[in-house]
Design goal:
The protein is an alpha/beta fold. Helices cover 33% and strands 15% of the residues. It has helices at residues 25-29, 65-70, 85-100, 169-176, 233-236, 245-263, 284-293, 320-334, 347-363, 372-385, 390-401, 404-416, 444-453, 477-488, 492-502, 532-541, 564-569, 574-588, 611-614, and strands at residues 16-18, 43-53, 121-128, 137-144, 153-158, 182-186, 195-196, 201-203, 209-211, 230-231, 276-282, 302-306, 428-433, 439-440, 463-467, 515-520, 546-551, 597-599. The strands form four sheets. An eleven-stranded mixed sheet has the order 1-2-3-4-6-5-11-12-16-17-18, sandwiched between helices. Helix 12 (404-416) packs across helix 15. The radius of gyration is 23 Å and the shape is globular.
Length: 618
């Protein structure tokens, strides 16, 4: 078997084939283990790479440290149109830290909780493909120089949202690396591997722009001749990656074992039998690790899932697409009847748009109030009747104001229906856009930064959602009605999307596996009532011992606590995820699991975050 190259190759490399019985461990250690717990599958790892990160660079922040991560502008490229792999990595870490963590001076990161201390070490990366998929997902393993050989551990994680391979650095890397654990990542079939259809360019293994026919291209979609705009993996792979999230996570864990064999041959073999594996993720990453928890085989030792996007067949449970499209239609109107909304968005600025939505709903007979105020009250009642709490509605104002509901619905409709480029049923597509929002060709500099800067779902990084049905006064109304109809309507497209949604249902975790679920009770993007609560109930009905922390005054986005009003109202979720990791790690050493808790966290207002605000259960 070929070992990982020590340099960063620019030409295609042979496949790295790994099996439970034929690992290069025979060469590296002189023996192989066939222990019952070593549940490795045959996995093909393509385009393997490795790199060193020391002396002003590191695994956790690429040498930026807390001060560098706090900078309001991203690290610059020497040549904007042709950044180096090292520049792209540094900028990707900056982008993903800022997108996930509250790094503000009053937020307590790096002092009250969390770590950004430099962690030197080696990084390994490759592509892996789950059986039946046509496109790979990225896997990456970080092995710190201070890997704790006396307590072999791997923290495996999946990116939140649709982020790229570093999308969980602030979740898993910040906890695992300073403790001497290796950390394994997967982008779970999504990520920032955009493809410029106009130029015929995507991204290679090291994040640099690559031609369609490059041997190491990460994603090149099937597209008709003359297709224009931008394609991205989550929407256009035609794989419905969410259905395989659990397998993505397991393959990342397997890749970490191989990376450890390469990095530390004197200690090989690393197997699931002799290495502790803890899975952690938030949001979509939280859903991914819960899907991994249900897989057969004694390969995983514990799971911590924060604010998970998880869907089960149980009372109260709702699929993300169902409540997202409901919120996209009703919430703008309903928010006119909700007081004390957080800012931004500024209500005075969006009020005309929200009033237009009320009018559209009334014109379609979906509301019958005599005026905007009455219509808003009805919309709010409708959402309450379907399970939305006042807390979720208030925090959901951010998603409504920034048009996040529509962006999520458009991407997931394409993914669930396995639609290719130009095939979506609602006339939606993606392209670089100018200030007039008209599609245009991307510049070389814009394209070069997508891999490091993009969140995995447009709009953002200069790429926007193109809706041919936009028309005033309620601009997005026609497209949103179509997207909602794919959840509630009839016809082959609706059947196709609902079949994709059904394939994402989660099962209870494996019996005996320690699982802790942590969720903010003010979550306005993935409300507790539709996700964590029914998942925990479903798991317990199956006899599984799942522990559940519900945290008051915590919403979905720690990164948005940089807005003063959000920082004053809400607390970050990450301290509770780190604490849950501490508890399950201690449990694996013999301590008791944490008990269920409704945590009475209190807002910090204008003060700096303190221990008393967190009210951490003890």
């Amino acid at each position: 078997m070929r070992q990982f190259p020590h340099s960063n190759p620019t030409t295609p490399s042979a496949r790295l084939v790994a099996t439970a019985a034929t690992l290069a461990l025979v060469v590296l250690a002189g023996c192989a283990s066939t222990a019952a717990r070593d549940a490795r599958e045959t996995v093909m790892f393509e385009q393997p790479r490795s790199s060193l990160h020391r002396d002003g660079d590191d695994l956790l922040t690429a040498g930026l440290g807390l001060d560098g991560l706090r900078q309001m502008v991203p690290p610059a490229f020497a040549d904007a149109a042709a950044p180096t792999a090292a520049e792209l990595r540094r900028r990707a870490l900056w982008s993903n830290w800022r997108g996930i963590a509250d790094l503000g001076p009053a937020g307590g990161y790096g002092t009250l909780y969390g770590s950004v201390a430099a962690v030197p070490g080696r990084e390994f990366s490759a592509y892996a493909t789950v059986p039946g998929a046509t496109h790979p997902h990225r896997v990456l393993a970080q092995v710190p120089d201070a890997f704790d050989a006396a307590k072999r551990c791997v923290v495996v994680t999946a990116s939140s949202g649709s982020r790229g391979i570093y999308g969980s650095i602030a979740v898993a890397g910040a906890w695992g690396l300073p403790r001497g654990c290796a950390v394994a990542y997967t982008d779970k079939g999504a990520g920032s591997d955009y493809f410029d259809l106009d130029a015929g360019l995507g991204f290679g293994a090291d994040g640099r722009v690559a031609a369609r026919d490059a041997g190491d291209i990460a994603f090149a979609p099937d597209a008709a001749q003359g297709a224009t705009g931008v394609a991205f993996k989550h929407a256009h792979s035609q794989d419905n990656p969410e259905a395989d999230w659990g397998r993505h996570v397991k393959q990342a864990a397997e890749f970490a074992l191989h990376a450890l064999d390469e990095a530390l041959p004197a200690q090989a073999p690393f197997t699931f039998d002799n290495t502790r594996v803890i899975a952690v993720g938030i949001s979509n990453g939280g859903g991914a690790v819960l899907r991994a928890a249900e897989l057969e085989g004694d390969w995983l030792d514990a799971v911590v899932a924060g604010e998970p996007n998880v869907y089960v067949d149980a009372p109260g449970a709702r699929a993300l697409y169902d409540y997202t499209t409901e919120a996209a239609l009703l919430m703008p109107c309903a928010l006119l009847a909700v007081d004390q909304l957080p800012q931004p968005p500024l209500l005075d600025q969006v009020r005309p748009l929200y009033a237009a939505r009320c009018a559209s709903l009334a014109a379609q007979g979906l509301l019958d109030g005599a005026d905007t105020a009455a219509q808003a009250g009805q919309a709010r009642e409708r959402l309450a009747d379907s399970g939305w709490t006042d807390e979720a509605l208030r925090a959901g104002a951010l998603s409504a104001g920034f048009d996040l509901w529509r962006a999520v619905a458009a991407t997931y409709a394409s993914a669930y229906g396995r639609y290719g480029v130009g095939e979506g049923p609602c006339g939606l597509s993606y392209a670089a856009q100018g200030s007039d929002f008209r599609p245009r060709a991307a510049t070389a500099a814009e394209r070069a930064a997508w891999w490091s800067d993009a969140s995995g779902i447009p709009p953002g990084s200069g790429v926007g959602l193109v809706d041919v049905g936009l028309a005033p006064p309620d601009l997005a109304w026609t497209g949103l009605q179509c997207l909602r109809g794919l959840s509630t309507g009839q016809g082959p497209d609706a059947d196709r999307v609902r079949a994709g949604i059904a394939a994402t249902r989660a099962a209870p975790p494996r019996a005996g596996l320690p699982v802790v679920v942590v969720h903010g009770l003010d979550d306005g993007l993935i409300p507790v009532a539709f996700s964590s609560a029914p998942y925990v109930g479903h798991a317990r009905a199956a006899g599984r011992d799942v522990r559940y922390w519900q945290v008051r005054n915590v919403q979905h986005f720690d990164g948005f606590l940089a807005f003063p009003d959000y920082g004053a109202r809400y607390l970050p979720l990450l301290p509770y995820v780190y604490e849950a990791l501490d508890r399950v790690d201690a449990h694996l050493d013999g301590a008791a699991l944490p008990v269920d808790a409704v945590i009475e966290a209190t807002p910090r207002g204008a003060a700096a975050l303190g221990v008393s605000h967190l009210a951490m259960p003890r």
